Amino acid sequence: MSVPITTRTLQACKSCGGGAPIDVHFCPQCSHILSLGRHGDYFAFLDIPRKLNFDVADLERRFRALSRQFHPDYFYNATPAERRASLERSSYLNDAYRTLRDPISRVEYLLGLEGFAPRDGAQMPGRLLEEVFALNEELDEIRALRAAGAPADVWKTRLERAEQPIEAKRAGHERELQELCARWDAVVDGGTAEGERADVLTALRERVLERTYINNLLAGIERELAQ
Fold first, then answer.
1. I want to staple 86 with a disulfide (CB 3.0 to 4.6 A). Which of 20, 50, 75, 98 is the partner?
2. Hey, CA dihedral for 58, 29, 8, 78, is it positive or negative?
3. How far is it, in rounded angstroms, from Cα 101 to Cα 94?
4. What confidence score (pLDDT) does residue 120 get?
C-alpha cells in the first residue's frame, strides 16, 4: 500500500530542539536549516505533486531557488551541524532534480516510491517474445551472410528492414507510456481507490520493462550496422 502524499512526519531541529515536518527545509521555530535525516521523497522535497506530467520550467525554478537557499557559501560561519545540513540538502536536491527532470527516470522513481519497482531478473514481457525470437533468427542469418563475404549493402539492407518493426513497436510503446502517465495523474487528482492505483502502477512497470528490452534490441541492431 502506498503512503498518502499528505503524510507528515516530524523531525527534531538540532538547533532549538523544536519539531518540524520532514518536508520543510528550515525550522519553523528558529529558522535554522534542518538536518536532512530521513526524508520522504524527491517530490515532497521540491514541494510538487507526485505526478508524472508537470511543468519542467517550474521544476527548474524550484531547483534554482532551493540551490540558492542551501548553498554552502551562506553557511560558512554557521555551526558544523548547519554546514553539514546545507551540504546534505544540496546533494539531495541535485539528485532529486536529475531524477525528476527526465520523464523515464521520473516514472522509475515513482514506481520505487509506490513499491512497484521492477524486480531484478524479471522475465521478458510476453508481448515482446515473438519479436525477440524473430529478430534473433534474422540476426543469425545476417551474421552468416557477412561471414560468407556478402556485400555490405546486402546485409545492411536486411538489418535496416529488421529494425523497422522494432522502431514501430517503440513508437507505439511510447504512446502507451504517455497514456498511462496521464492516467496516473488523474488517479492522483481524483483520489482514486487503491485498486485503480495498483492497476496503473502495474501497467507502468510492465511498460518500463518493455522499454528496456526494446532499447536493447535496437542497440543490438545498431552494433551490427556499425561492424
1. 75
2. positive
3. 11
4. 66
Homologous superfamily of the 10-101 domain (CATH): DnaJ domain (1.10.287.110)
User: Is this prediction's pTM over 0.85?
Assistant: no
Cross-strand bridge partners of residue 72: none
127-143 confidence digits (pLDDT tens) = 777 777 888 888 888 88
Other beta carbons within 10 Å of 124: 12
The reported pLDDT for the residue numbered 141 is 86
What lies within 8 Å, CB to CB, of 125 at 6+ separation is 206, 209, 210, 213
Q: Any idea which residue has 540538502 for its cell?
A: 89
Domain ranges of the chain: 10-101, 126-226
Please choose, from the candidates 137, 204, 130, the residue with its C-alpha nearest in 3D space to the C-alpha of residue 173.
204
Is pLDDT at 63 greater than 50 in this prediction?
yes
Cα distance between residue 118 and residue 213, in whole Å: 13
